[in-house]
Amino acid sequence: MTNYVKSLALILLAAAMAPAGAEDAIPDHPALRDQFYFALGGYFPKTTTSAQLDSNRLGAGTNIDFENALGMEDSKKVPVVFGRLRLGERWRIEGEYFELNRTGNRQIDRTLQWGDRTFPVSAQVQSKFNFSDFRVSGGYSFFKTKDKELGVGLGLHIAAYDVSLSANAIGTESQAVTAPLPVLSVFGQFALTEHWAVAGRLDRLQLKYQNFDGNLSAFGLDLMYQPFKHVGFGLGNRALYLTLEATGNDRTAKFKQTFQGPLLYMNVSF
């Protein structure tokens, strides 16, 4: 994670300090000019997942590695959608969404306690782990020129979980959690030519409020190519590191996840 932050900072700093040259040579890229920007693509994250469901009746649950213990795949192609609306020269509203839904089926080699149910050694356990992240934020560009933009924002990562374990003769135990996690953001966009541009973003949260205790870091880096007036293409990377504890009336759910991988997308802007 540290190397990712350093790389992102160096790329954005180098682009921001690059000389523009004569005024008529300053690149005019649509990503820094158009009011509406919308993109749809494929995200290829590699993920790690651990979760624990404590019960007031049975006490602390088992911390379960869902990939290794329950046979879930650790990489999967998923759709991603994101967009931006500029409000005047410096203000923006933007959002991004992806979901990763997986199932597993494995004979377990140790006893697992999940909530109010205990799954013994050698039980054939079917599992489901559905996750989605919806990021929405408002931002202000404190530095804005024709080819460069730096800003800060305030927003939410709305993380939603739907997790269950089941086995014959034991039954099913499910837990759903939706956590709106506020984050502070730093973003930048820089035109390299009239067709090429780079963009980066960092979101950060460490906060305890109400029945949630969360720690979130999210990073995004994109290389954008727009050969046409309203249509372009992008190659990027997304990383999300999330630790969440949600306390209810009779149980506490604990999640720890990482996502990191490339994405390819097509965008329209006008």
Percent range of helical residues: under 10%
CATH class, please? Mainly Beta
Mean of pLDDT: 91
The CATH topology name reads Lipocalin
CATH architecture descriptor = Beta Barrel
| Tertiary shape | elongated
Output the helix-strand order: HEEEEEEEEEEEEEE
What are the low-pLDDT stretches, counting only 5+ consecutive residues below 50? none
Strand content: over 45%
Indicate how many domains the architecture comprises.
1
The first-to-last residue Cα distance is: 35 Å
The computed structural class is mainly beta
CATH superfamily: OPCA outer membrane adhesin/invasin
Q: Outline of this structure?
A:
By secondary structure, the chain is mainly beta. 6% of the residues lie in helices and 66% in strands.
Write the layout of secondary structure elements.
Blueprint: H1 2-17, E1 36-43, E2 46-55, E3 64-65, E4 78-87, E5 91-107, E6 112-114, E7 117-119, E8 124-144, E9 148-167, E10 171-191, E11 196-209, E12 212-225, E13 231-247, E14 251-269
Antiparallel strand pairs: 1-4, 1-14, 2-3, 2-14, 4-5, 5-8, 6-7, 8-9, 9-10, 10-11, 11-12, 12-13, 13-14
Describe the overall structure:
By secondary structure, the protein is mainly beta. It has a single domain, classed as OPCA outer membrane adhesin/invasin (Lipocalin). It is 6% helix and 66% strand. It contains one helix and 14 strands. The strands form two sheets. A ten-stranded antiparallel barrel has the order 1-4-5-8-9-10-11-12-13-14. Strand 12 and strand 13 form a beta hairpin. The longest helix is centred in the first third of the chain and has 16 residues. It is elongated. The two termini are 35 Å apart. The model has no long low-confidence stretch (mean pLDDT 91).
